[in-house]
Every structure is written in structure tokens, then in C-alpha cells.
């Protein structure tokens, strides 16, 4: 039997946990019309919370309603790349690229008298994102559909290009075109986007913060993923798996996949508690190499010290900023820049005033280990 779990970034899970309400909201937004708030959405969340998966689902919902989906890629040249080939291809598919012929003056000899004309292709005014999006919008509107622009990994895009994209979208919305924009990224990318003076219109966007799944959602998805692939799972195995998963989408796939494999090794058609127990350390190791290490790679020394202090004074996953300052022999105000940077990178969150929480499960344990 094939393992039904998908412990890999960017891969849709077989059973999506806990996002049904949000997806219903997007379906309605595409159907509703101009002014539906979710038509301009920013999804943020720490690594592995399911941003890419949500974007995939949002794209599918748009396509189901006949919309054209344009994927923007967050590297230098994003705008040029959108104009050609992305929009150019979409236009070609809709067969609207035939350019009318016009008559233009082709030769004026300086100081001379000849003035002749010839048939040429229409003057191609410089193709901008705005003009090309308008052409596409005009073409799709004939089919009663719209355009969704999706952008993943916002933090990797250049802010000036994001501003240009935002301006074009805003301009089309003003002219009542059916256009939607969904972007996803780490919190720092979303904040950088919102801080730029050229993107003020995005400050009114729906900001969706993807976080933990509820225990109930984890359980339902865990059980359904296993049973729909032809195996059983015991109740205590589900409880233990849920405890290890801590509401974190990536771990749901990792724990499921490893427990399934442990059952396979024993030729068992039931996933049992012993299988889940046997893979707990392997799951944590996966977190270390695929989540903690990459998340901390670019974190400067001073912020790491902050995190280490936080791990030391934390009660469970949360710590008081006052205690962190005390541990570091400093004041809370001296820590504010580091605190802010870590919040923006999505490594920690601030659930309450004066309190901070690790947003990545097992990060505290990782920081307390000798790596
Ligand atoms: N709602 C969900 N239910 C079950 N599994 C999920 C859910 N969302 C995501 N996953 C799983 O979690 C893992 C991470 O998902 P995804 O790649 O979308 O995260 P991400 O937030 O985009 O991470 P990154 O910040 O690294 O880009 C994948 O294995 C995916 O299948
Ligand atoms: Mg992603």
C-alpha cells in the first residue's frame, strides 16, 4: 500500500486539515464580484504552515470558476516575466493577439519632399504590465471570468517590483476589472511589502495569518488520510500522533508518513501506538534538518542569543520578555529591535503583551540541545 502522507514542502496533502472555511471564503470571493475583500489577500505564516498549499488551492478554486491564473515568480525580472511569457501566453491562448494593420508615415526625407506611406503592423506601444493586464482582462471578461495573480515566497521578490505589481492591480480594480491577487510568504516578506510607500493599497488587503491547526482538525485529517488509503489506526495512536504534531501542518505529514512506514516494516495493516512511539525521534530529527536549521540560517548572532535566552526561561513554548532581558542582563527596551526582527521572520509570535512564543514546534528543544 502506498504511503498517503506527503512530508515535502510545496506538495498538497491528500487530506487538507482545517482550511475548509477559508477556502469557502475564497470561492465566494471569486463568485461575488468587485469589492469582495478576499480578492486581495496576503497569507503569512512561519515555514511549514501550509502557505504554498493554500495558494495551490486558491488557484484551483479560481480555475474552477473559469478564471485565468497568472503565477508571478519572485525573482528579479518578475514584472518582465509576467508581461512575457506569462500574460503573452495567456493572451495567445485566448486568441486575442491579432494586431490590426494601420497606415503610417514611413519615410520623411529631411529637407526633401517625399512623403510615403506603407502598410505596417500597428505601432506597438510599449507593453507595460498595466496595458497587458488590461488586454487580458478585456479578453477574459467576455467569458464572464477574471484574473487571479498568485505570488508565493513574497520575501524573495524585489520590493520595487512588488510595488509595480500592486500599482497595476490597484489600477485595474479601480476600473472595475475582475482581478484578484493572492500572495504568500514569511511574515518578514509580507511586512516588507506593506512597508513600501508604493504598496499602500495592499494595507487594506486581507491579511491571513496561517497558524496552528486545532487538535480536532489534526485528528480528523490523520485518521482520514490513513483509512482512505486502506489501513486502520488505533485511538491511542491518533492521540499520541496529535500530541507530537502540535498542530503543525508539516509535522502532520512527517509523523503520518513515518508511522505508516513503521507499520509497513511490521507488515501491519493497522497503525498502532508502538509505531507512533517508535518514530518520535525521527520526526524531531526531520524538524531539525528541514525546519530549524534553515529557519535559523540567516539569523544573526545577537538574535540567536535572544532565542537561546528565551529557550532557557520559557515555560512550555512561551516566555516573558522581562525574563529574557533579565537572563541576558539587559533591559527590555534594549531588546526591542531583536524582538521585532524575530517576530517579522516568523520564528516567534507575541500571543500577549509582554509574552513571546516559539512558532516552530520543537525549536525550544533544538536550541537547548547542542545542535
Ligand atoms: N492544511 C494542511 N493539512 C495537512 N497538511 C498540510 C496542510 N497544509 C500544509 N500541509 C503539509 O505541510 C507541509 C508544508 O506545506 P507548505 O509547503 O505549503 O508550507 P509553507 O508554509 O509554504 O512552507 P515554506 O514557508 O517553507 O514555503 C507539506 O508537506 C504539506 O503537504
Ligand atoms: Mg511555501
Automatic annotation (TrEMBL):
Q: Which Pfam families match?
A: AAA_16 (PF13191)
Protein name, as recorded: Orc1-like AAA ATPase domain-containing protein
What InterPro entries does the entry give? Answer: AAA_16, P-loop_NTPase
Outline the extent of the Orc1-like AAA ATPase domain: 17-170
Amino acid at each position: 500500500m502506498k504511503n498517503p502522507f506527503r512530508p515535502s514542502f510545496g506538495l498538497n496533502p491528500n487530506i487538507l486539515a482545517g482550511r475548509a472555511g477559508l477556502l469557502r471564503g475564497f470561492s465566494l470571493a471569486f463568485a461575488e464580484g468587485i469589492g469582495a475583500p478576499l480578492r486581495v489577500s496576503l497569507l503569512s505564516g512561519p515555514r511549514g504552515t501550509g502557505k504554498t498549499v493554500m495558494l495551490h488551492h486558491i488557484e484551483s478554486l479560481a480555475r474552477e470558476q473559469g478564471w485565468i491564473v497568472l503565477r508571478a515568480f519572485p525573482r528579479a525580472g518578475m514584472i518582465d516575466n509576467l508581461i512575457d511569457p506569462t500574460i503573452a501566453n495567456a493572451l495567445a491562448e485566448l486568441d486575442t493577439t491579432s494586431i490590426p494593420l494601420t497606415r503610417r508615415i514611413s519615410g520623411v526625407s529631411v529637407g526633401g519632399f517625399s512623403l510615403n506611406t506603407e502598410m505596417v503592423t500597428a505601432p506597438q506601444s510599449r507593453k507595460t504590465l498595466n496595458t497587458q493586464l488590461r488586454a487580458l482582462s478585456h479578453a477574459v471578461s467576455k467569458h464572464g471570468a477574471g484574473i487571479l495573480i498568485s505570488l508565493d515566497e513574497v520575501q524573495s521578490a524585489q520590493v520595487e517590483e512588488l510595488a509595480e505589481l500592486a500599482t497595476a492591480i490597484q489600477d485595474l480594480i479601480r476600473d472595475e476589472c475582475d482581478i484578484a491577487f493572492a500572495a504568500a510568504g514569511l511574515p518578514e516578506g509580507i511586512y516588507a511589502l506593506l512597508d513600501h510607500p508604493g504598496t499602500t493599497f495592499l494595507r487594506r488587503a486581507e491579511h491571513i495569518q496561517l497558524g496552528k491547526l486545532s487538535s480536532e482538525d489534526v485528528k480528523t485529517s490523520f485518521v482520514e488520510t490513513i483509512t482512505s488509503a486502506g489501513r486502520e489506526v488505533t485511538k491511542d495512536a491518533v492521540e499520541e500522533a496529535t500530541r507530537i504534531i502540535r498542530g503543525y501542518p508539516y509535522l502532520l505529514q512527517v509523523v503520518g508518513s513515518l508511522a505508516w512506514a513503521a507499520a509497513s516494516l511490521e507488515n501491519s495493516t493497522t497503525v498502532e501506538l508502538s509505531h507512533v512511539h517508535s518514530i518520535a525521534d525521527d520526526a524531531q530529527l526531520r524538524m531539525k534538518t528541514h525546519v530549524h536549521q534553515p529557519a535559523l540560517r540567516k539569523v544573526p548572532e545577537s538574535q540567536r542569543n535572544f532565542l537561546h535566552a528565551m529557550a532557557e526561561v520559557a515555560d512550555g513554548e512561551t516566555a516573558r520578555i522581562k525574563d529574557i532581558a533579565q537572563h541576558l542582563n539587559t533591559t527590555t527596551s534594549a531588546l526591542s529591535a531583536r524582538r521585532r526582527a524575530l517576530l517579522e521572520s516568523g520564528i516567534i509570535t507575541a500571543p500577549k503583551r509582554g509574552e513571546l512564543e516559539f512558532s516552530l514546534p520543537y525549536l525550544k528543544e533544538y536550541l537547548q540541545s547542542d545542535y
